[in-house]
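Throughout our pipeline, every protein is held as a single compact record rather than as scattered files. The remainder of this section carries one protein's record, kept here as part of the documentation.

===
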Amino acid sequence: MKLTRLELSGFKSFADTVNLTFEQGVTAIVGPNGCGKSNVSDAVRWVLGEQSARLLRGGKMEDVIFQGSTARRPVNVTEVSLYLDNTDGDLPIAYREVVVTRRLSRSGQSDYLLNGAPVRLRDIQDLLRGTGLGSGAGVVIEAKMIDLLLSDRAEERRSLFEEAAGIGLYRDRKHSTERRLEETAVDLQRVEDLIAEVQSQIRSLARQRGKAERH
Protein backbone atom coordinates (compact mmCIF):
# COMPACT_ATOMS: atom_id res chain seq x y z
CA MET A 1 0.00 0.00 0.00
CA LYS A 2 1.39 3.38 -1.01
CA LEU A 3 0.27 6.97 -0.73
CA THR A 4 0.16 8.21 -4.32
CA ARG A 5 -1.72 11.48 -4.25
CA LEU A 6 -3.25 14.09 -1.96
CA GLU A 7 -5.94 16.40 -3.29
CA LEU A 8 -6.93 19.50 -1.34
CA SER A 9 -9.67 21.99 -2.08
CA GLY A 10 -10.54 24.92 0.16
CA PHE A 11 -8.41 23.52 2.98
CA LYS A 12 -6.75 26.19 5.11
CA SER A 13 -4.40 28.15 2.83
CA PHE A 14 -5.29 26.09 -0.26
CA ALA A 15 -8.22 28.03 -1.71
CA ASP A 16 -8.07 26.29 -5.09
CA THR A 17 -7.84 22.59 -5.81
CA VAL A 18 -4.27 21.41 -5.39
CA ASN A 19 -2.94 17.96 -6.29
CA LEU A 20 0.23 16.65 -4.66
CA THR A 21 1.66 13.54 -6.31
CA PHE A 22 4.00 11.28 -4.36
CA GLU A 23 6.45 9.30 -6.45
CA GLN A 24 8.62 6.39 -5.37
CA GLY A 25 11.12 7.17 -2.64
CA VAL A 26 11.10 10.06 -0.19
CA THR A 27 9.11 13.21 -0.88
CA ALA A 28 10.14 16.44 0.83
CA ILE A 29 7.94 19.53 0.96
CA VAL A 30 10.06 22.64 1.36
CA GLY A 31 9.36 26.34 1.32
CA PRO A 32 9.49 29.53 3.37
CA ASN A 33 7.56 30.01 6.59
CA GLY A 34 3.86 30.54 6.03
CA CYS A 35 3.68 28.89 2.61
CA GLY A 36 1.46 26.03 3.85
CA LYS A 37 3.85 23.13 4.51
CA SER A 38 2.24 22.32 7.86
CA ASN A 39 -1.19 22.54 6.26
CA VAL A 40 -0.31 19.55 4.10
CA SER A 41 0.36 17.37 7.14
CA ASP A 42 -2.78 18.79 8.76
CA ALA A 43 -4.74 17.74 5.68
CA VAL A 44 -3.46 14.16 5.98
CA ARG A 45 -4.37 14.06 9.64
CA TRP A 46 -7.79 15.61 8.97
CA VAL A 47 -8.82 13.31 6.11
CA LEU A 48 -7.92 10.30 8.25
CA GLY A 49 -10.51 11.41 10.79
CA GLU A 50 -8.86 13.77 13.27
CA GLN A 51 -11.58 15.19 15.53
CA SER A 52 -9.55 17.68 17.55
CA ALA A 53 -9.42 21.20 16.11
CA ARG A 54 -6.60 21.98 18.54
CA LEU A 55 -4.37 19.30 17.02
CA LEU A 56 -5.08 20.89 13.64
CA ARG A 57 -3.91 24.23 15.04
CA GLY A 58 -7.38 25.74 15.09
CA GLY A 59 -9.99 26.90 17.56
CA LYS A 60 -12.91 25.04 15.97
CA MET A 61 -13.19 22.51 13.17
CA GLU A 62 -14.56 25.09 10.71
CA ASP A 63 -11.17 26.81 10.89
CA VAL A 64 -9.82 24.27 8.39
CA ILE A 65 -12.01 25.89 5.70
CA PHE A 66 -10.23 28.61 3.71
CA GLN A 67 -11.03 31.86 5.51
CA GLY A 68 -10.36 34.23 2.65
CA SER A 69 -7.63 36.78 1.99
CA THR A 70 -7.25 40.26 0.60
CA ALA A 71 -7.44 38.80 -2.90
CA ARG A 72 -9.83 35.87 -2.39
CA ARG A 73 -13.23 35.43 -0.84
CA PRO A 74 -13.77 32.68 1.75
CA VAL A 75 -15.07 29.34 0.53
CA ASN A 76 -17.95 27.46 2.09
CA VAL A 77 -16.74 23.89 1.68
CA THR A 78 -13.44 22.11 2.08
CA GLU A 79 -12.60 18.67 0.76
CA VAL A 80 -9.49 16.53 1.05
CA SER A 81 -8.91 13.19 -0.70
CA LEU A 82 -6.16 10.70 0.05
CA TYR A 83 -5.27 8.29 -2.78
CA LEU A 84 -3.77 4.93 -1.84
CA ASP A 85 -2.35 2.30 -4.18
CA ASN A 86 -3.84 -0.98 -2.98
CA THR A 87 -2.33 -3.20 -5.67
CA ASP A 88 -0.74 -5.39 -2.99
CA GLY A 89 -4.13 -5.89 -1.33
CA ASP A 90 -3.01 -4.61 2.07
CA LEU A 91 -6.42 -3.01 2.56
CA PRO A 92 -9.31 -5.49 2.86
CA ILE A 93 -11.30 -3.97 0.03
CA ALA A 94 -11.72 -4.99 -3.62
CA TYR A 95 -10.16 -1.87 -5.16
CA ARG A 96 -6.70 -1.43 -6.59
CA GLU A 97 -6.91 2.26 -5.76
CA VAL A 98 -8.57 3.42 -2.56
CA VAL A 99 -9.67 7.03 -2.19
CA VAL A 100 -10.54 8.32 1.27
CA THR A 101 -12.37 11.66 1.21
CA ARG A 102 -13.55 13.99 3.93
CA ARG A 103 -15.77 17.01 3.27
CA LEU A 104 -16.89 19.79 5.61
CA SER A 105 -19.14 22.79 5.03
CA ARG A 106 -19.53 25.93 7.11
CA SER A 107 -23.03 24.78 8.02
CA GLY A 108 -21.41 21.94 9.95
CA GLN A 109 -22.32 19.22 7.45
CA SER A 110 -19.55 16.63 7.49
CA ASP A 111 -19.20 13.70 5.11
CA TYR A 112 -16.80 10.81 4.68
CA LEU A 113 -16.49 9.01 1.37
CA LEU A 114 -14.74 5.82 0.35
CA ASN A 115 -14.16 5.66 -3.41
CA GLY A 116 -17.00 8.14 -3.79
CA ALA A 117 -19.52 6.23 -1.66
CA PRO A 118 -20.77 7.73 1.63
CA VAL A 119 -19.47 5.89 4.70
CA ARG A 120 -19.09 6.43 8.43
CA LEU A 121 -15.88 7.56 10.06
CA ARG A 122 -15.86 4.22 11.89
CA ASP A 123 -15.84 2.40 8.53
CA ILE A 124 -12.72 4.27 7.45
CA GLN A 125 -11.04 3.74 10.79
CA ASP A 126 -11.75 0.00 10.69
CA LEU A 127 -10.44 -0.21 7.13
CA LEU A 128 -7.18 1.56 7.94
CA ARG A 129 -6.52 0.05 11.35
CA GLY A 130 -3.89 -2.63 11.16
CA THR A 131 -2.09 -0.86 8.31
CA GLY A 132 -0.22 1.77 10.31
CA LEU A 133 -2.62 4.47 9.08
CA GLY A 134 -4.97 4.28 12.04
CA SER A 135 -5.58 7.16 14.41
CA GLY A 136 -2.52 7.70 16.59
CA ALA A 137 -0.41 5.27 14.58
CA GLY A 138 2.31 7.78 13.81
CA VAL A 139 1.23 8.89 10.34
CA VAL A 140 2.04 12.42 11.45
CA ILE A 141 4.84 12.51 14.01
CA GLU A 142 4.54 15.22 16.63
CA ALA A 143 6.84 16.19 19.45
CA LYS A 144 4.39 14.74 21.98
CA MET A 145 4.63 11.33 20.27
CA ILE A 146 8.40 11.41 20.66
CA ASP A 147 7.79 12.21 24.31
CA LEU A 148 5.63 9.08 24.55
CA LEU A 149 8.42 6.96 23.08
CA LEU A 150 10.84 8.36 25.63
CA SER A 151 8.33 8.14 28.46
CA ASP A 152 9.05 6.07 31.54
CA ARG A 153 5.46 4.82 31.46
CA ALA A 154 5.50 1.47 29.71
CA GLU A 155 1.77 1.58 28.91
CA GLU A 156 2.21 4.78 26.89
CA ARG A 157 5.01 3.29 24.79
CA ARG A 158 3.04 0.08 24.40
CA SER A 159 -0.08 1.87 23.13
CA LEU A 160 1.95 3.67 20.47
CA PHE A 161 3.64 0.49 19.24
CA GLU A 162 0.37 -1.45 19.30
CA GLU A 163 -1.31 1.18 17.16
CA ALA A 164 1.54 1.21 14.65
CA ALA A 165 1.55 -2.60 14.51
CA GLY A 166 -2.20 -2.77 13.96
CA ILE A 167 -2.97 -4.47 17.27
CA GLY A 168 -5.12 -1.54 18.32
CA LEU A 169 -7.90 -2.68 15.97
CA TYR A 170 -8.26 -6.01 17.78
CA ARG A 171 -7.93 -4.38 21.19
CA ASP A 172 -10.79 -2.03 20.36
CA ARG A 173 -12.89 -4.90 19.03
CA LYS A 174 -12.22 -6.81 22.24
CA HIS A 175 -13.32 -3.85 24.36
CA SER A 176 -16.40 -3.37 22.18
CA THR A 177 -17.32 -7.05 22.53
CA GLU A 178 -16.79 -6.92 26.29
CA ARG A 179 -19.11 -3.90 26.52
CA ARG A 180 -21.79 -5.71 24.52
CA LEU A 181 -21.44 -8.77 26.74
CA GLU A 182 -21.85 -6.59 29.83
CA GLU A 183 -24.93 -4.95 28.33
CA THR A 184 -26.33 -8.37 27.43
CA ALA A 185 -25.74 -9.60 30.98
CA VAL A 186 -27.65 -6.59 32.32
CA ASP A 187 -30.50 -7.27 29.88
CA LEU A 188 -30.60 -10.93 30.91
CA GLN A 189 -30.80 -9.93 34.55
CA ARG A 190 -33.73 -7.67 33.75
CA VAL A 191 -35.46 -10.51 31.90
CA GLU A 192 -34.89 -12.84 34.85
CA ASP A 193 -36.35 -10.24 37.20
CA LEU A 194 -39.40 -9.89 34.94
CA ILE A 195 -39.82 -13.67 34.78
CA ALA A 196 -39.62 -13.91 38.57
CA GLU A 197 -42.20 -11.13 38.91
CA VAL A 198 -44.56 -12.80 36.42
CA GLN A 199 -44.16 -16.17 38.15
CA SER A 200 -44.98 -14.53 41.48
CA GLN A 201 -48.11 -13.01 39.95
CA ILE A 202 -49.07 -16.40 38.48
CA ARG A 203 -48.75 -18.06 41.89
CA SER A 204 -50.81 -15.31 43.47
CA LEU A 205 -53.51 -15.66 40.82
CA ALA A 206 -53.48 -19.43 41.26
CA ARG A 207 -54.10 -19.04 44.99
CA GLN A 208 -56.91 -16.58 44.33
CA ARG A 209 -58.43 -19.00 41.83
CA GLY A 210 -58.27 -21.82 44.36
CA LYS A 211 -60.03 -19.72 46.96
CA ALA A 212 -62.68 -18.71 44.44
CA GLU A 213 -63.31 -22.33 43.44
CA ARG A 214 -63.71 -23.40 47.08
CA HIS A 215 -66.32 -20.73 47.62
Remarks:
- Strands lie at 2-9, 18-21, 77-85, 97-105, 110-114, 117-119.
- The mean pLDDT is 86.
